[in-house]
Structure formats: structure tokens, C-alpha cells
Amino acid sequence: MTSLQKAENRHEGYAARLLRKTFSRWSARIGAAWIALLAVVAVFAPFLANSRPLWVSVGGHGYSPLLQGLTWADIGWLAAFFGALLLWSLPLRFGQRLLGLLAIILIASLIGKAALKPRTIEIYEQYREQAAQYDEVIYTLVPYSPRDYQRDRGDTGFQPPSREHWFGTEENGADTLSRMIHASRVALSIGFVATGIALVIGVFIGGLMGYFSGLFDIIGMRVVEIFEAIPTLFLLLTFVAFFGRNLYIMMVIIGLTSWTGYTRYLRAEFLKLRDQDYVQAARAAGLPLGSILFRHMLPNGVAPVLVGASFGVASAILAEATLSFLGLGLVDAPSWGQMLFQAVRFSSFNWWMAVFPGGAIFFTVFAYNLIGDALRDAIDPHLSTVEE
Amino acid sequence: MSMLEVDGLKTWLKSGGKQIKAVDDVSFTIQRGETFCLVGESGSGKSVTALSIIRLLPERIASHPGGAIHFDFRRRDGETERVDMLRLDEARLCQIRGLRIAMIFQEPMTSLNPVFTIAEQIIEALRLHNPEMPYAAARERALEALRQVQIKDAEAKLDDYPHRLSGGQRQRVMIAMAMACQPDLLIADEPTTALDVTVQAEILRLMKTLQKDRRMGILFITHDFGVVAQMADRVAVMRRGKIVEQGELDTLLASPRHDYTRALLDALPENLPRPDHPPPASENPYIEVRDIKVWFPVYKGVFRRHVSDIKAVDGVNLQIRRGEIVALVGESGCGKTTLGRAILQLIRPTAGDVRIAGDSIIGLNNRQLRPYRRRMQIIFQDPLSSLNPRLTIATTLIEPMAVHGIGESTEERIEIARQTLETVQLKGDHLWRYPHEFSGGQRQRIGIARALVLDPGFIVCDEVTSALDVSVQAEILQMLLQLRRDRQLALLFITHDIGVVEYISDRTLVMQQGRVVEQGDTAQVCGAPTQPYTQKLIAAVPRMPENVYRRAGACQ
Question: Is the pLDDT at B382 greater than 90, yes or no?
């Protein structure tokens, strides 16, 4: 199919046109730039904020404590990043790229998990104590790990921003900026995984409902209504109470309760599309159902779903932040919402714990909304009449 | 002095950073009591001219770098003032719009506001221009206006909402609204294009009567020379924003001077060289439809009781041999499209039998139907919506071939697709484009190519030319005839256009309310119809006068 793909590159397809229109707006570009920055920060978090020095040399023998300290999760993130760069530079279909990326992440994480010994205890202080012995040492930008509580520094606890800690420290004395950098992983992954789960379920059920309509549609719509009646936050609270604080359970629950919106969008689109002449033509040509649904209808009906998804990512991030703010988030892993919680937890109002993580949440949610807005305008035929 | 004088009008439209000269130096005049027809193909700038006169173009995209539109504005105090529409402020324009210049649009279904009653809409227009008029008097005037446009039972219709009215009735209401303030100039932009021929004939007759009563000027915009021949006193032919020729109706039709006018007249189905009608390849029918019925159930009440059926197709018999073109004519809603889709099993018929080359295909599931799908294809009316905007032409053409196992490899299928595109007179490298890169006529050719790649024996052509300009229509029709000859195709040609039927088909079926009311050889059905419905239908078709210019070699 190489000649086909070459041709699709030469002439601008619908997806390319949509992207061009979306990102011709400054608001969408700014939003995308913020998300891209966040992604880079999340991927390279251990290289940006780590108590382990990037490079040390002792008596002519040089090594990198940082690389030694990488975990399987770090390997997974790096694999995802470079895998995505590789796959998107090759001429592949979107589905192939997506599957390839998932495979790369899975394999890299498994290899990392098998090959790297998990350390039960991490003594961050040693690198500062041994600093005098190093001949040469290169630190990361923020020389503190997110769980480096700096017991060696004596009086740890809340400290306002200073030269030492740009964004201050949290209740245990860990560096806030470092925690924020590492927390961007939670924010990104919960948004994408939860929305991804919701999209898969929503698109599948919505597509079938719209295409078959009739009885299937009636039953499907009742299921949608049942799921819409479930309050996500209370379900999350219940699950946290029963199963403990697990990020993956949170992702799955947010995903399982938020697919109904996408179902409704896609159902409505498919009800409209099934009577389009090109769908009738596909039926008249005897094409298999899978092709009619996923090749001829889905790409034409998916745009509103994508708009919904970009808002969905934002609301998943907010849901996690809400839980963490209520003190029901992850225990020790850094998260923006949990840091907000610390801002008001004690008698004093620790403004730096509110401003910086709160700002990060605000800008991330805002960025997704900007992209979603631009996407919605790009697919709106009423706004594009002047151009065409 | 003429009532309206358009002098060197230029209208430029901004579009994606570019300036398009939509109307470029157009001049004409309209006298009182005269009908002036602007005729041209789509995109020729005729509608933009009309909208420029009444100043309804959005100002952020439209500009008038030159020209003047002089209009005799009869003020409410009785004085007549010569104004230039292009240089009036919005307040003055509002006094003229609706009161002295009124407009009716093509699409009656969307030009009335669905949330107001007919009375409210007419009265609003009346009282806007006559603020001192009491409500009761306005209502009286509205009723009178409805009676004038010959709406039956006008008093009851007055308080109806638009959805209760048929397309023809709505267009009458639109005319009533336009006429209520007794305008001096009526601009009618394709007012009958969306209507059935019988309704069109009534509306045209009505417009003429009203014009005679009021000595009103009409600017009539159309693409249909038959309508022009009925309505116009004078005609102008527009092309790419310019008037290429204008003159008295009779002179222009009898001896057109400009090449483009001649080309347009040549392209009319009645002016095309008559095709030969070769005898069918075999006497056995390729497609045989027996007593087919498509009923849509109607449910009512809480328990969804099955109360009745809408009989879209109610017992139709039909046989088509290979190499034969059968036309199916009828007005909108008669069930002709449903019949076409029911034959292809795109809609499952309620009862009856469909046989293709002797095999019954009723009751087969999708998998069993697949081998038959290859043999019967469909071409659609709207060339825009019949192609998947997300796929290249190559993908659209190749996928069905792959499903049916035509061609060994993708490369071979691409070659077949390339040849098919050349058959429909497109270039082979058009394969790599997306549908939005083509014009309407080109898209229709691609639609035909999609049907042809499977090498079918039978094709349903569902109003394939009604969205196209006459010149493109002529090319498509000739191509279909050529394909019929080359491939021995059996065609079911669904249309509402009698002119096209007379040109292309061997046999004709006339449908009304789900039933076939008359069938036979085309010459007999169209020339000497026996059923009253067919007679009415044929009589309503706007015809060109006898003395019109004929293409050399065109036979009667």
C-alpha cells in the first residue's frame, strides 16, 4: 500500500485539514505548546529533578548515579516518548502507530521491571554527604528527588520559596518543584488513560447504536442513562475506601464512568451518517460491516467525539486533583491535587503550595480546553464557509 | 426611464484571503411590469447580482469597487426619488427592502420561520413598513394576500405553522409575504427549482397573474431555459460574473449570438442529438421485480400500536433487459427512490420478489447477498455526499474490488481503477486526490466510476443529473449512453425531469403514490399519455418554443 500512502501525503486529507485549521489559531497553539512542555517534563522528570547527580567521578572513575537509579516506570516513559517519535516519522497508518506504541511501552516496561532490581530503601542524603569526595559532579536542574525529605538538613517542613528551593518545600521537607515535575506524570497519564478507556467503550457502543438503531439503540440508550446516573466522585471515594489508593483503579473508574458522553455524540453522528449516500454506496458494494463502520463512518463522525475527549482529559485531571485534595489520593507519590491539599492542611496558609500546583492544574486544564475549543470551531461547517 | 438600472455593477467577495470577482461589470435595466431573466450555470454570479441589488451580502466579505444600482424609490409620502442602492445607509435600505423591493428564495422549506404562524410572519412584515396599521387591518391584508396567491382555505391556513404546509404552499406564502407590501420590484431567486413540475407550473402562472395586476418588475433568476421561455420578456445570460449576451426573449432564443449561449442551448436534452436505441442484448429480463412492496409501519399511543402503514412502494412490477434504459418518473414523495433502493436490497422490501439474472435475492443475508452486490450498483443524486470525504479516490474505488476479489494485487486494482477513471473521462492521476478537490460534475463521474469498477450488469441511477448544470448534465447523459452500448448495461434511470427521460430512456414508468400509473415506450408515454396523471405531468413541463435555435443535426 506504499503508493497509496505516498499519495495521501501529497494531497491534504481531512485529518490534515482539520489539524491545520485547529492549529492555525494561536489559542490552540499555546495550548498544544503547554501540553508538549508538560509531556517533555513528564518524560524527562528524573533528569530534571533528582537527588542523584547526573554524573560523578571519584578518583578517575566516572559513573552516573542517576542512570543507576532509574525505575521501570522511567524506562516506560522514555520508551513511550522515543517510540512515538520513531513511529510518527515512519509512514504508517494511525492504527498501526497506536498499536506499535502500546507494544513498545509494554515491552519496555516489562523488560525494565525484570532487569532492574527494585530498591527497597533509597538514601538520598548520601549524595550530599559524599559531595566533598567527588572530583567532579554534575547535578540535575533541581537537585532533589520528590521523596527526598532532607532529614540531613535538620529542621524540615514547610519552607517558603528560597534560592535553595525555588517553589518552597512541602510538609515533609521535600522540594515542591521536584514533586511538581514528577507529578506531571500522574496528570498526563490519568488524563490520557482514563479518556482512552472511555473513548474505546464510548465509540464502540455509540457506533453500534447509531448504525443499527432500533432495539439495540433503545437498550443502549437505557444503559447510557444508568451510567450517567452514577456519580463518579462518590464511586471513586467508595473504591478508594475499599481497595486503597491506587492510581490505576482511579484511571479505570474515571474511564468506566465517563464514556456515556462519547457514546451519545457518536450515536448522533452515526444516525446522520448511515443515510449518507457514500455509506449507502458502501453497502451497495457489499463491503463488510467492519469496513463500513470503522473506515467509512467512524472517521467522518469522530470529530465531535475528539472535541469531547479533549474536554474529557481536562475533567479527568480535575477528578484526580479533587480526590487528592480531599486527602484520598495517592499516599506518597506526588500529585498536584495533594500539594493543594497541603496548602490549607495546617493552621498557616502555605501560599506556595497553592499557587504553583494550582497554577499547573489551571494551565493544563485550560490548555486542553483551548485545544478542544479550536477543534470544535474547526469542525463547525458554519464557520468555514468563508474559507471554502 | 427604467425603474431599476444596474450600471457597471462589480461585487467582489473575499474568500480565504483572496478576492473573487463574483460580479464583474454587469449592466441591465428593468422596466415596470417587465420580467427580466438572469440565466446561467452555478457559480455564474446570478444570485450574487440579486443579493447585491437588495444589499443582503454580508459586508465583511462583500465589497462593491464599482458601479451603481439606480432605483426609483416610491416614498411613503408619494414622492419618487432616484436612489443608488450601493450608497444608501442601512436605515434607508430597510425602508426599501420588503416595501419596494421584495425577494423570494429557492428553498421554501427553510425560508419560513417554523416557530411563528403564517399570519404572524406576514403581519410582522406588513406592520414593519406600515407602523400605523392596526393589527386587525393587517390581518385582513394578510388574509387577502393569501387569497391572492390562491391558497385554498386561506382563513384556516392563516393560523397554521409552516410545517403543516407543503412545499408549493410555502412558496405561495413566501410570494404572499413578498407581495403584501405591494413592491415595485420582485426578485425571485430560483423560486421553483425545489418544486415539482406541476407545482412549478402553478407558481409560474401565479407570478405572471400577480405581475399583470400590479405592474411589478420581476428579476427572475433561474438555470432552466424552459422556465425562461415561459416567464421572460428579456433575458441575460451570465457566465463567470459577466453578462455575455442580453436581449428580447424571442430574438435571443431564436438566434443566439454568443457562443456560450449557443453552448447552453445545445446542452438542453431536447437539443442533444438523438441517440440510437439499440435493441436489448437478449429478450430475457436481467432484473425482474414482481409485485414489490415497501411499507413503513406507523405506531401510535403508549403501547406503540401498529395502526397503519405508509405505503411508499405498493406493488410494482418491473423488468429490465441488458442494454436497456428504463426511466422511472414521478414527483417528490412518489416512492421512486425507495423503489430503487428496495431493488438493491438497501431497504428490505416488505413483500414481493426481486430476481437478478433469474436468481431471487429476497431474504438473503448480507453474506449471501455479497456475490449479487457485484452485479447491481447505484449512482446517487448528490455528488458531494456520495463520496467519502476522508478517503482518496483510489481507496474508494479499490476497496470494493478487494472485497469482491477483482484483481490479484493492489497494484493491479490501481490499474483497473485508473482505466475506469479514464472511461469516465477523468485523468488517471486523479486517483490520488480527495473528493473536495473536484467539481460537482467530476464527482459525479467518480460516482459512476465507483459503480463501474465492480463491472455490474445493472445500475440504478438515482437523479444523477439533477444537481448538475445543463452542460455537465449533457456530458453525463452521453457518457451513460456510451456505457450502455459498450457494456450492455441495464439502467434504471430515476428522475423527475421529463426532458432527460425523453432523451435517454427506451421505456418509461410513471409512478404516483407508490404505484405505477402508466408504463410503455418513452415516445408513447411522453408523446401521447393515456392516464390523466401522466397527461397533467407532461403538460406541466416548461417547453421551449418551436421557433427556438436548434443545434445543427438535432432531430425533432
Answer: no
